[in-house]
TrEMBL record:
InterPro entries in UniProt: AceGlu_kinase-like_sf, Asp/Glu/Uridylate_kinase, Carb_kinase
Organism for this UniProt entry: Pseudonocardia acidicola
All residue ranges annotated as the Aspartate/glutamate/uridylate kinase domain in the record: 1-291
Record's keyword terms, sorted: Kinase, Transferase
PANTHER family tied to this protein: CARBAMATE KINASE, CARBAMATE KINASE-RELATED
Protein name: Carbamate kinase
Length: 310
């Protein structure tokens, strides 16, 4: 069985969302214990991950150091975080494998994902990134061509969140998986690139949704199961109300009907539900949304919100 595990931000930060190096190392150790447990059962595992807190830290450094070191664009931040998170996850997984006496090699792939230069997201950016700034500071950055919005508690940069169309480096990832490597790939949804008229690729300042990127990667590498690991054990109907109800096993059709009724928030659970539905609709056996404690049960037994084709 081939499984793609998509780790959310909480798998790489402390409980308060802080992403200091020691927080990321400690969180990765917990998540990779679960992965080592799966590898012990002969499940083939690939890993992808979010990078919101890590990119947020890089953007703050860019802003503070702009007069000394030239700021790097958002696609570079994506590439940098794929490398550092990949490195941290590889070290954590290697340690967990050695403890179990499992001889498997790990690899991390800098992964580019194609988006359309005319994606509607570029006309009306919606994805908030980085920290809140006072209006005067935001104005300077608006002057540099960025889009910032008044979010009440300060101004925040918003960027396009275009649809992932093709994982450019998917064939490399697949080859490594087939050669027996445990691969970390497409972190942060992939580094968004557009195709130029001459066929070359150019990185672009945007953020691909990590879960939608995961659904496409799972499809690209022929995964049987997509596990979306987050900080809640289930997707929930009437979330946060007295009528809250966990979603157990559902078909993609049923889950889409719940989504249409507005049960899943657009910036958080919504894309996970969409990713799970897409994956099974494109032929995946099943997708599971659950928390880190239930990853192993989600793959080998019954836990979380399980989405099946019919
Ligand atoms: P990650 O960083 O793991 O990608 P997110 O924070 O983006 O996770 O999404 C998970 C969060 O979604 C949960 O912590 C929860 O607060 C929120 N959420 C919103 N709507 C729902 C819902 N209907 N069911 C469960 N969680 C929900
Ligand atoms: Mg999150």
């Amino acid at each position: 069985m081939r499984v793609l595990l998509a780790l959310g931000g909480n798998a790489m930060t402390n409980a308060a969302g802080r992403a200091a190096p020691q927080d990321q190392i400690a969180a990765a150790a917990v998540a990779m214990e679960a992965v080592a447990g799966l590898l012990e059962r002969d499940v083939e595992v690939l890993i992808t991950h979010g990078n919101g807190p890590q990119v947020g830290n890089l953007l703050t450094k860019n802003e503070l150091a702009a007069s000394v070191v030239p700021p790097v664009p958002l696609d570079w931040c994506g590439a940098q975080t794929q490398a550092t998170v990949g490195f941290v996850l590889m070290n954590a997984l290697d340690a967990a494998l050695v403890r179990r006496g499992i001889r498997r090699r790990t690899a991390a792939v800098v992964t580019r994902t194609l988006v359309a230069s005319d994606d509607s997201g570029f006309i009306r950016p919606t994805k908030p990134i980085g920290r809140h700034l006072p209006a005067e500071e935001a104005e300077v950055l608006i002057g540099h061509g960025q889009t910032w919005e008044d979010r009440g508690k300060g101004w925040r940069r918003v960027v396009a969140s275009p649809e992932p169309l093709d994982i450019i480096d998917g064939p490399v990832v697949r080859s490594l998986v087939e050669a027996g490597f445990v691969v970390v790939a497409n972190g942060g949804g992939g580094i968004p690139v557009v195709r130029e008229p001459d066929g070359s690729l150019r990185g672009i300042e945007a953020v691909i949704d990590k879960d939608l990127g995961a659904a496409l990667l799972a499809d690209t590498v022929g995964a049987d199961v997509l596990v979306i690991g987050t900080d809640v054990p289930h997707a929930v109907l009437n979330y946060g109300t007295p009528d809250a109800k966990d979603v157990g096993t559902v078909t993609a059709g049923q889950l889409r009907a719940f989504a249409a009724e507005g049960h899943f928030a657009s910036g958080s659970m919504g894309p996970k539900v969409e990713a799970a539905c897409r994956f099974v609709e494109r032929g995946g056996t099943r997708a599971v949304i659950t928390d880190l404690d239930h990853i192993a049960t989600a793959v080998c037994g019954d836990a979380g919100t399980v989405v099946v084709a019919s």
